[in-house]
Amino acid sequence: MPNTDNTYGTFNKRTTIFSQITDEPTVFADTDSAKSHFFTADALSVWDECCTNLQWALVADDYGDNTKLKVTFDFGTKGIPNISEADDWAGQYNSRKAALKDSDTWFANPAHVVPDQPDHLF
After folding, report:
1. How far apart are alpha carbons 8 and 105 in whole angstroms?
2. Which of 72, 52, 68 has its CA nearest to residue 10?
3. DSSP per-residue letters across 22-74
4. What are the b/e assignments for 52-84, b being 16+ CB within 10 Å?
5. Model pTM above 0.90
6. Among the four residues 27, 74, 110, 112, which has the most C-beta atoms within 10 Å?
7. Cα–Cα distance measured from residue 59 to residue 80, given in angstroms and rounded to the nearest whole number
8. pLDDT higher for 80 or 72?
9. Among candidates 39, 35, 51, which has minimal Cα distance to 106?
């Protein structure tokens, strides 16, 4: 479950779409199955613990099948101005994500990532 640190607002809203890299993509029944296809359990914990607002959705491919996953997320702050950037939620997300990517344990399966999408889910 995302954190609730929104007293000072939320920041750094982003939306990303993840696509499968395979000739025969899996068609997802729901967002939970898509999330576990694309991400490891540790990666999903990072999303849940560091994001303040977090919403997932399935995205249809050119054939109308739900083979892609979309996420919109943003971050609150642990407290302005007393928290360092590295210790705040966005900094924690970035450093924990980098550590998992460096150990090849962020993605559960290969993915094509399309960041900075303009059509946010919230």
Report:
1. 32
2. 52
3. SSSPPPPSSHHHHHHHHB-HHHHHHHHHH-SEEEEEEEE-TTS-EEEEEEEEE
4. bbbbbebbeeeeeebbbbbbbbbbbbbeeeeee
5. yes
6. 74
7. 36
8. 72
9. 39
Convert the pLDDT of each residue in 77-107 to its tens digit.
998 778 899 999 999 999 999 999 999 999 9
Tokens of 72: 């919109």
Cα–Cα distance, 101 to 77 (Å, whole number)? 24
Angle at CA of residue 107, ends 44 and 67, nearest 5° = 90
Q: Which two tokens stand for residue 101?
A: 């990517």
Residues contacting residue 71 through CB under 8 Å, at least 6 positions apart: 15, 16, 18, 47, 54, 55, 56, 57, 121
Q: Whats the size of the chain, residue-wise?
A: 122
CATH architecture, range 11-114: 2-Layer Sandwich (3.30)
- CA–CA distances in Å: residue 12 to residues 40, 51, 110: 23, 10, 25
The closest alpha carbon to 35, from 105, 96, 92, 107, belongs to 107
